[in-house]
Amino acid sequence: MGHHDIVVLRGVAAHIDGGRKEKRLIHAVGDGTFVADGRRFDRREAMRSKLPGGV
User: What InterPro entries does the annotation carry (predicted)?
Assistant: First the structure.
């Protein structure tokens, strides 16, 4: 099987604020960045230890 350049993360916790009217979905891009309804969040520094080298 060849190399596919993907990172699989395991979710360990989640939180839902039931009192909040606004609801957004967050998508993990896979390079340490996330997208919530079109807005990109750069969390590469915080995710650095979880990403393979070169990402």
Answer: Split_barrel_FMN-bd
Residue 37 lies in a domain: yes
pTM: 0.50
Can you give the residue range of the structural domain that contains 34?
1-9+19-55
Instruction: List the beta bridge partners of residue 28.
Output: 34
Find all residues with CB under 8 Å of 43, minimum gap 6, and list them. Answer: 32, 33, 34
Q: What is the 3-state secondary structure (H, E, C) of the chain?
A: CCCCCCCCCCCCCCCCCCCCCCCCCEEECCCCEEEECCEEEECHHHHHHHCCCCC
